[in-house]
């Protein structure tokens, strides 16, 4: 065991740390979907840095480009001065991602974190509309700084603010109140009644698939309807694609299959390609009404990330890439559905879409147990949802067949281990 | 001219961009205090990434360690799982920085930006005390997300919030109202009068030298007195050392010569050493009352930055390093004072301390002109203050004599160019 | 026409004035349900000072007591010093109202207005629970000062605040989203999901019948269910009975038939009996945790109002009084239902209960027209609801048969006049 | 002793009650400056309902008019419909008060309490300017509803809100930080520095003499300078004359001797003349931009108060009245100065001006003791200030010589009693 290093953590790091508690090992190396600890133990990584490592660990082409750049004394840190690394990224992002999708966005580089792109989006929406309120949704997660936290649902995180979180209204996400209620009728009822206490907001912000909130995937028609409401009421639609974007759901942007064009899109996590900090705020040109420097940040010019981000875009030049993600997504769906059917004692149902799927179990504590056994069995996998009721699969989107199958094996083994440990019986037997 | 690349910026990047406007070149390479654009023009960099490049660009030892790490497939992104790169940093930071200074802090890794460490500090102070208000100071700058922006003075930045910024009280910084008023008597008068409308706050947050606010250095006795007030009223003292820390003022922490031990210290910018995103929140152990995961962030485990940050700490193992910064600081002071005396038409006075000094000119627009000429003359230098009334020198703290002298030459030349262009006359002549 | 006096109003009074615009006459005298203007024209008053004159104008017994008191130099203004007038009121209120209903409240005298009792209730609920949020309902109306306005739904009124109104969440009132949705399931779904963004509030505040909001009467089982939710989640239930209380709905407190005992009750308007300013906040004894003077107000000891309020309570000593209100309420219901059936072109349905009923017409502008014609025909009657879609009957609760019938005649005449003027046709004809 | 009645209070009234604790008697009758309890004990009233009874209790002319009006079935309650009682008041207020002072205000009738006029003033200032912040002053007192409380300094009262009080900045009142600091230079320094964190506010609100805050009278040149700052920065100046107005300081409006014309003036307390609830908000015509009904209230048409208020204005028709107040004010000043000189053991100094003067004692608890002895000696007198350090004289402004002298006698006796009880020695003796 790596006692000494974990003791260093224990002794020196704030008790706010969390994943080191679930995965008590000291990691040293990683490649693709594999990661090793300091004793040489290998793990299959189906966590992917919570969606920041969609291309796996240390992808070779990006690695090569990055090392060359560093050896060549390329600019590392540039604030928002122009660098060759930046203009190459901007050009390729436009050519490979935006133009083929018929999208026309201005690119803003806020600080290189998800919460920073969300804060910039909220500020801009309020500035442009002159309104203060923002509508967010139940179980949404948008970040930990005060602006982003105000549109985040989780009560433990919200309480951490230490101040009341204002200027926001939470509305029910798709399916929040059960399938028979159309949550958007409810939302619009509030907008149209001038006695509702809810004024027309500056923006509506949402994730198309809620990751932290429990791998809740909104229906495409629901997203379409949100888009229509925004247009009808002149509300700015912000899609927070920090986790669901960059291919995680099968298309580059998660909202593509809903056939909508948001006013503002927040990207971070995997946009840097290699796990390096980077964030973008994509802005419909008419809304790009910032004054120079009105939002800034020291690390908005992280050129190492520009280099790897540019290389990562190469994946998307070949249309077969998107196809392959979708094919493997179907494979994941099939596998999870098999598990649900084969192990009814899990009382489980399928959640999410693409490479952002999971199993929600009604058995209290079960999903956590599965993840614990997975770790023992050599796999990194995480739970999601307010009660940790979901275990979720976040493999790299460029994983090969073999990796996927290895992962499935470990997951099934972990499910069986958890069922055994918790002594769960199938209802068909017990009833 | 690099027209094509600057056009790409113009076409694709949000109009929020700022420094590319002051420094219209496309940069490609950098080493130490030098930076080159794509036409091969060399610039002396006395800007240092607004304090994020205290060790200069692409410092060779850090570069070597970083490349080795990458080539070796070291973990890049780890959230807050334990990695060897992280434990090595924690240990060395404790051994080289904290222990010798008799400091005992828990280390929190918030998201890797300055605003994120500030947000985490404010949240923790409010959580621990159960109070909501925070006192900040005139012309303070702490970041651009809503929590940090609430304690930032600049009105243009504040207006960008689009919502009222609350739960904060601004008090006058040292010397804000002129030398004959003791601003802290004023502050304490508010605390002790129960009819003052100002309640005892959760925290007082300040920079010991205000960078963005105009290179305003508080007197050590003023800092000492703030510390005493905090102790007397049981208020948490947060020092935002994001810009002034990591040697910028001559000691590792800027507050060392005032002989105080803040409750919470915010570090970012140069803590990563190489210009890579990293931030730390240092917390007095008794205050480390976070719940696991109560504040988190995707890039809080940026291992590339751990590698370079660890290497950077080597500088501080040798006591001569600190001495050398202080000696060169005296050289800077001497030079600036000479300029002030030699060019009375600047109507200037000296600001700041250490490697964070500048000249404030009462001639409207003069300092901006100096920076413009500096750029033409081959130097990157920036203004500070609400009216851009200060031009400031931020050379790397490990710069050699030669570099410093080269910089001084270019500055004097730029001063002369600016005086000539603005046709300024010395008062002694005109009167 | 009373031109000169109306010109004085026009010239000197702020344009915020409103009712003088709908009822452009100068009134001089009033008795019972009758009111006269300065030209001697008589009006039937079915407005009753928006519910402040439940016993009619200048009720003779109260008038007698009041004049005697004044002639005798009884204390007029006493802040919250003890006066005989006050102790007599307190004792009789306890004996006649509280004890027979098995209620046990402490009586607080805030400033003598509805908004002041609401503000005091909200402050106390927040103080006692240590929580900040309050849940209110769509189309609720609670007053115009910032605290009360924050729980008021009307957007025009809210915009008047000039600042964002915070610390409140608006939930759908009974029937807000149509009959097939149980709005309280929705509310509780938010409370129980820890990712909903809605925390457990200090209080829930509501009117059992929303007056300004459109004479919306909540079902008794809905009120009962709110009460259960409050108990289950340890939330303070505040009933704002400022308008619906003091007999307006047929019982002294409007919530009696729902068989609930709120934690805090707000009373004003008719509690003074004679139309004199007075307000009470009734507080469950365990919650009476005020510090002395923590909420105060100059006119909290309006002794003239104590005198008339005490006399007004005599009505309630005789159980026949309540019975008579209820009988006449049935008469009002019957009349309004007849109107709805007889004039289908109004596209109308019945609203409210007791002496707080009205007709909501789906024909835009119709209800306003009815009130306009009523005024011409010699009747004071007002609209309610966000689109003024309801004309409402607020006769004095001690009105006699004759008065009621006179009123009905004028209303039917005014309906006919409005139908004629707007040239409405019955659907059965036009279809 | 009036045990039974005080027990009723104890049993039934909320513990928020306060004055009944300082003055434990049950009052029954009052006339002029005299008040009697139920045992027939007579008290000299130098409290005057905290400034709501400037004309004394039950002034005979007002009493006569009021009784006649009631007997004649004059309208009691009218919301903001026109009544003869109202137009007569408006006309006389314009003729007797506004025109002779060359003032031109629109009159708004908010709810009939001080806090309501303040709330209406703040709302209007924010609406008209489109700004949110309001500057108030240390030790200001403006009311207990959330809007007014936000501009009130007292910490106990503020804490009662249960929510953070925002959108306001507290600046130091005249002399707050001692005589050698010009507090307004400080305020303006904040306005002019765009890094100060304080934006240009919608309004500045202040009392010319702070009553609750400790009888602090601002110098006329200070008031004049506030006025100039407001003009220079286009800030709305609100004078809260609720307590200091209606002759209390020697002129009808307290700001007259400073020769300023505020944009908005808040009046309540004694404007009704007889102690009946009434409040006015006086608005410079250009600022009267309310929408009809944007601020309203059930008791904004309290016609009994219109009747007595109109009669009260008769006092001001005779210029000798103002002169007589000022002459007696000099008498009060002289008396208090004598006391201060004669009893140096009080360590006292003079506060306030006009009929709003008091003695501030540096001996802890002394002023409270004086008031306690005064009560025993047959006088109602109150303390003021955050530490109750001031005992204040608020006699009726129409008091005769005899009443004043009687009061003085009782005060001197109470001072002597307090000195004796506390065993205070003169410093000249002890040193």
UniProtKB/TrEMBL annotation, chains A, B, C, D:
InterPro entries, per database record: Aminotrans_3, Aminotrans_3_PPA_site, Dat, Ectoine_EctB, PyrdxlP-dep_Trfase, PyrdxlP-dep_Trfase_major, PyrdxlP-dep_Trfase_small
Enzyme Commission number, as recorded: 2.6.1.76
Pathway(s) of this molecule: Amine and polyamine biosynthesis; ectoine biosynthesis; L-ectoine from L-aspartate 4-semialdehyde: step 1/3
One Gene Ontology molecular-function label: diaminobutyrate-2-oxoglutarate transaminase activity
Family of the protein in this entry: Belongs to the class-III pyridoxal-phosphate-dependent aminotransferase family.
PANTHER family the record matches: DIAMINOBUTYRATE--2-OXOGLUTARATE AMINOTRANSFERASE (PTHR43552), DIAMINOBUTYRATE--2-OXOGLUTARATE TRANSAMINASE (PTHR43552:SF2)
Protein name per its UniProtKB record: Diaminobutyrate--2-oxoglutarate transaminase
Species for this entry: Salipaludibacillus aurantiacus
């Amino acid at each position: 065991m790596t006692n000494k290093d974990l003791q260093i953590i224990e002794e020196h790091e704030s008790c706010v740390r969390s994943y080191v508690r679930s995965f008590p090992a000291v990691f040293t190396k990683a490649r693709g979907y594999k990661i090793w600890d300091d004793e040489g133990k290998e793990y299959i990584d189906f966590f992917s840095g919570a969606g920041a490592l969609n291309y796996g660990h240390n992808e070779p082409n990006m690695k090569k480009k990055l090392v060359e750049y560093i050896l060549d004394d390329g600019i590392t840190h540039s604030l928002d001065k122009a660098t060759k690394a930046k203009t190459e990224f901007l050009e390729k992002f436009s050519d490979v991602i935006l133009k083929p999708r018929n999208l026309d966005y201005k690119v803003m580089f806020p600080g290189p974190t998800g919460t920073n792109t969300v804060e910039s989006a909220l500020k801009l929406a309020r500035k442009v509309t002159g309104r203060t309120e923002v509508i967010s949704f139940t179980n949404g997660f948008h970040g930990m700084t005060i602006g982003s936290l105000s549109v985040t649902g989780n009560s433990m995180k919200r309480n951490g603010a230490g101040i009341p979180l204002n200027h926001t209204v939470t509305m029910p996400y798709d399916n929040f109140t059960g399938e028979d209620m159309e949550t958007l009728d409810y939302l619009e009822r509030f907008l149209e009644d001038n006695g509702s206490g809810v004024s027309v907001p500056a923006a509506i912000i949402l994730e198309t698939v809620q990751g932290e909130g429990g791998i809740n995937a909104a229906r495409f028609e629901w997203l379409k309807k949100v888009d229509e409401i925004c247009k009808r009421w002149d509300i700015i639609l912000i899609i927070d694609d920090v986790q669901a974007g960059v291919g995680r759901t099968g298309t580059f942007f998660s909202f593509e299959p809903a056939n909508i064009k948001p006013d503002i899109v927040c990207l971070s996590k995997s946009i840097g390609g290699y796990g390096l900090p980077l964030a973008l705020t994509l802005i419909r040109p008419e809304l790009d009404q910032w004054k120079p420097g009105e939002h800034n940040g020291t690390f908005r010019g992280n050129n190492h990330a520009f280099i790897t981000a540019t290389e990562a875009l190469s994946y998307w030049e070949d249309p077969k890439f998107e196809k392959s993600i979708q094919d493997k997504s179907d494979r994941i769906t099939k596998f999870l559905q098999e598990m649900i059917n084969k192990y009814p004692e899990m009382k489980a149902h399928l959640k999410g879409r693409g490479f952002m799927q999971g199993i929600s179990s009604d058995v209290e504590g079960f999903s956590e147990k599965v993840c614990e056994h997975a770790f023992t069995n050599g796999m990194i996998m995480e739970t999601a949802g307010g009660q940790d009721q979901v275990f979720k699969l976040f493999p790299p989107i460029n994983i090969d067949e073999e990796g996927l199958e290895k992962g499935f094996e470990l997951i099934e083994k972990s499910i069986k281990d958890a069922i055994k440990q918790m002594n769960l019986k199938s209802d068909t037997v017990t009833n």
